[in-house]
Amino acid sequence: MTAASQKPQLSLDARLGLDRYEIDAEQSHIAVDHDKCKTCTTRPCLVCCPAIVYRWTDERVAVAYENCLECGTCQIACDHGGRGAITWHIPAGGFGIAFRYG
Amino acid sequence: MERFDVIVVGAGPAGATAGRALAQAGLNVLVVERAATPGAKNVSGGLLYSRAVAEVYPEFWKHAPIERAIAAHQIVMLGEHTSTALDFRSAQAATPPFNAFSVLRAKLDPWLATQAEEAGASLISGVNVDALLVENGRVVGIQAGPDQIGADVVVVAEGTAGLLLKQAGLRGPHNPHDVSLGVKEVIALPPDVIEERFQCDAETGAAYTLVGSTGGVEGGGFIYTNKASLSVGVVVKIDSLYASGRHPHEILDAFKAHPLVQRLVRGGEVVEYSAQTVHRGGFHLATQLVGDGYVVAGSAARLLVNNVLTLRGMDFAITSAVEAAQAILQARFAGSYTAATLGNYVERLKATSIYQDWRTFKDAYGLMENPRLFSLYPDLAGEVLERLLTADTKPGSKALGALSEALKGKASWLTLSQDMLQIARGMVL
Ligand SMILES: Cc1cc2nc3c(=O)[nH]c(=O)nc-3n(C[C@H](O)[C@H](O)[C@H](O)COP(=O)(O)OP(=O)(O)OC[C@H]3O[C@@H](n4cnc5c(N)ncnc54)[C@H](O)[C@@H]3O)c2cc1C
Ligand code: SF4
Ligand code: SF4
Q1: A99, A21 Cβ separation under 8 angstroms
Q2: ipTM more than 0.90?
């Protein structure tokens, strides 16, 4: 195999850029109880999300909900490996990710 | 309050099929789907096992948007720099009633939903069911935005997340040990390249199931051929994932960087990145299937057969929906929709062959808890073969000697034989 035939891996942002979203600019479908995070030492939300929606910034979790792929992992991970701070709702009707292949 | 005979939550394979079956029987059915178009929220690896599905949708391959008939299965153990494969091909799987088809959900689900509509069901898409309406412990309808809609019985077919059941207190918690995350890419490739690379023709395709190369995280990878693309992904257990500290997309990237996978996806263009959770399918994990005024079908009830080599959620969803619909019709005849009258669903389901398969493979779940299956053995298989196949300048040894060499410092013979017994119990005996 030649190096030329090998395309480099896409960055996560580039990959998310390929997806189609109907973004709800009004409201986030993910609520985080930041007080609970204060005692969370494991922070599995930062690791598990396939879209890295959760980042630790300024001593709290910042949530880029607009990138959410709606997989459901963060809720399970935070409930069990974290402090149960996440309440994940489904986005308002018709909003959110819209897979073209799935 | 507006009323229907039956309300179905979700238009995935389970919901669409339940809607169709009940509408065919003349009931007034409403199917509510949160995606603007059915399928737009749904992800699967993509193998639709066809036998059970054809009983519900006769000769569906002539009409439904399927991709390729899977006539070749490769079971591969990926070591760090090796791959050891079992290559199974069946000419029979390329002719009716086939075995499995690759599918893409954004195409399949709208077709299924159309079948329900053509049978007379009403479908509303782009609308969330916000809650199940419960009165005195009985489900009496749904809340959707400002609207309350009543029904004799509600079919809950909301998929793996099961948020409505959770909110209504009708299921136990999800455990990260029992749920896996799948991350997937659809990679476009011209059909002729796919056919040459995967040794198939215009109608048929190949499925790769790969164990190992998930960096020790419990799980595996898949590569399925579609008409003009590949479905490529990894499925990893959530507890193992966060213990690993690695991001899901990094595990996918490492998998794609394995020399074998690299060769198969080479030159392709990623056109979509997606993710979804799936229960690992344990027989013991099923949620309660019926209660007063409701039944649960498909993956919302955690119905899934997973014997490591095959993952059957879509056909199980379809089968369960048919049995749920039949039980509802029977309850209707009896004139009441209680847990007792609807309980017939459970009996009917137990009589299906897919349910029997589910029981048969109940010991395979233990396998998925064995970390050596994902980290040690794929490498070991490669190492043993490497020792046997490499003409070294040092003297070689027979298979047992090679295995003994490869095992050194990694596992004892006792552990190995116990694991082999476990594999045998799960899959062979
Ligand atoms: C990575 C991965 C790979 C898989 N590979 C395979 C495979 O190769 N073969 C196979 O057979 N199975 C596979 N599965 C499993 C399979 O996808 C599921 O078992 C199957 O989709 C279950 O069908 P369902 O109808 O029960 O649920 P779903 O397909 O999840 O459908 C649920 C529907 O309900 C809708 N919904 C949810 N909540 C609401 C609400 N509140 N209001 C309105 N609508 C709602 C959703 O939008 C969705 O359309 C895989 C799963 C994953 C995650
Ligand atoms: S895992 Fe949950 S509790 Fe912990 S930091 Fe993340 S959101 Fe907060
Ligand atoms: S649902 Fe999935 S993609 Fe969305 S935030 Fe949670 S983990 Fe990330």
Answers
A1: no
A2: yes
